Fold this protein.
Amino acid sequence: MEYKKINDPKKTFRIAKAMASDIQMYHKEEIEEAIKNDTFFEVIEKDFRDGKQLLEERVDPEILAMDNYLERAIVDIILKYSGNIRSSIW
């Protein structure tokens, strides 16, 4: 199915935040353990890759080049609120 490419940075970031929220919701326990063990990026690798691919399919390349939407969303949605988890990474 062909989609009209998204050309709005705010909409792109909202989509990325929804993806990060989904990752957090479906992998809450794994993420907590991954932060404790400093394996966070390995644990979310597949979901991250899938999210990046979806953004590349749905968003205008010029908009994607403006920011690291999914990376920023992961920090804002998952990592920002995980500071209470004991970990050597912080």
Remarks:
- Residues 9-82 form one domain.
- The CA atoms of residues 21 and 34 lie 16 Å apart.
